[in-house]
Amino acid sequence: MSKKNVCSICGKELGMMSSKIMLKDGMLCSSCGAKLPKLSAGVQQYTLEEAKNIITKQNEPEQPYTGEVPNYVVLQVVLKEAVFGVGSQNLSELEVIINRQAAKGYRLHTISTTTSGSKGVGGGDRIQATCVFEKLPR
Ligand SMILES: [Zn+2]
Questions:
Q1: What is the Cα 114 distance to its own chain's centre?
Q2: How many A from CA of 124 to the centre of ligand 1?
Q3: CA separation (Å) from 1 to 4, 102, 121?
Q4: How far is the CA of 54 from the centre of ligand 1 (A)?
Q5: How far, in Å, is the centroid of ligand 1 from the Cα of 101?
Q6: 1-60: CATH, from 3.40.630, 3.30.40, 1.10.3470, 3.40.50
Q7: How far is the CA of 58 from the centre of ligand 1 (A)?
Q8: DSSP secondary-structure letter at 12?
Q9: Where are the domains of the chain?
């Protein structure tokens, strides 16, 4: 018995009296073992590989941003000020944009507007709407 027992994950020494969690091919200290979910029925022990995967996964953000499927989409729409009037042409344009995103599985998260103060040019102020769409979980 020359070899010391150490936790296979964090390397903490495990004495005779320390509580430890046995793996198929290693052992864990109680604090690392506590990070593992309860074993499902029929599974006797985790392997070290499984335990490592589970524990390192927990330290990562749940949905890493890969850029392939963005969680948020930001669209900027320039609207004439008349958008806030009733029955405006621009309002339906905005609707089309929102509905198009909805068809892709996005929901309008927030919308904020800024007025660009270009008075007199092109016949009046314009409003820039920034729409943030949130991807709905499938
Ligand atoms: Zn440990």
A1: 28
A2: 66
A3: 8, 65, 87
A4: 13
A5: 46
A6: 3.30.40
A7: 14
A8: -
A9: 1-60, 72-135
Q: What is the pLDDT along the chain (138 residues), one digit of tens a residue?
A: 446 789 999 999 998 888 888 899 999 999 998 888 876 666 678 899 989 988 887 766 666 666 666 788 898 888 765 545 555 566 677 888 899 999 999 999 999 988 766 555 455 567 788 999 998 876
Structure tokens at 97: 């944009």
Ligand 1 centroid – CA 20 distance (Å): 9
CA of 9 to the centre of ligand 1 (A): 5
What spacing in Å lies between the alpha carbon of 12 and ligand 1's midpoint?
6
Contact call for residues 9 and 32 (beta carbons, < 8 A)? yes
